Every structure is written in C-alpha cells, then in structure tokens.
Amino acid sequence: MTADPDEDAALAWAGDEPSVVEPVETSPLQTSSDEPVEARAPMPAPLLITYGILVGIYLIYTLGWVITVQRLNGVRVASSDALGNIMFQLGEALAMTSPVIWLAAVFLLTRGRKPIVRLLWGLIGLLAVLPWPFVLGAWA
Q: DSSP letter at 71?
C-alpha cells in the first residue's frame, strides 16, 4: 500500500520531513520482549457451557441463603452477649457468601489442572453449600 504524498504533507508541521512508516506484522503471540509467551488452547464450548451452568446454580444458592437468613432473623433468639451477636452475624454472612467463596476457591485452587478436577470439585460444592434450611422449609 503506497501512501499519497499529499496526505502525508497534510499531517506534517511546517519544516518536518514527511516519513512513511511501514506497518510491522506480528502474530498475536509475539511480544516485543524476549520472553516467549505460552500458547493456550481455547476452552471447548461444552466445558464453557458447563462452567456457566455451575456459576448460575451457585448464584441461585447464594440467593437461597440470603432468603433463608432474612427469614430466620425474625425467629432467632437475641443474645445479651455482644460477642455472641457478632459471631452469629458472622456466621450468617459466611452462610450467605459460602457458594461464592466455594466457587472462587474451586477456580483458583484448581488452576492449571485438568478440567475434570475442577468439575468434580464444583459438583461436590453443589452438595456442600446447598441451602438446606431453604430446601427443607425450616423457615416456614
């Protein structure tokens, strides 16, 4: 591709010499540094869809825990101990965020392993953080 000298002159200041810069073609994996970049294979579509389903289920679990904690707040017995109240509220907060914490731990701690390991830990978590009080109707 040749550049029109009139276009180059239009972009130059008075006294500057117009210069033509040739574009350098690089592949997406090339960098300007000397370190080689590892090429990652793209994630297969079924695996990506499975991860999306797992994340959706964990978000529903989080909503279940939030609803359970909100409904049980009217039922709980108030403690006169300040430390007891703080610990109870901490337990409620951890219960509500347990699905998100489990999912984040699975994705962070299984990084670099086979996808089946990540899926197995994700499935184990589906039973571990299930909002059982919501499922069994303990709040009714």
A: H
What interhelical angle do 45-72 and 115-128 show, nearest 10?
Answer: 20
Asked whether the beta carbons of 78 and 89 are under 8 A apart, the reply is: no
Per-residue CA distances from 3 to 12, 25, 95 (Å): 14, 18, 65
Secondary structure letter of residue 13 according to DSSP: -
Distance (Å, whole) CA 66 – CA 73? 11
Q: 10-residue block means of pLDDT along the chain (140 residues)? A: 64 65 62 61 90 95 92 73 88 93 96 93 95 77
- At 67, the amino acid letter reads I
Helix then strand then coil, in percent of the chain rounded to 5, is: 60, 0, 40
- Report CA 18 to chain centroid distance, whole Å: 48
At residue 47's C-alpha, the angle toward residues 42 and 50, to 5°, is 145
Q: Tell me, what amino acid is at 2?
A: T
Query: Is the whole-model pTM more than 0.85?
Result: no
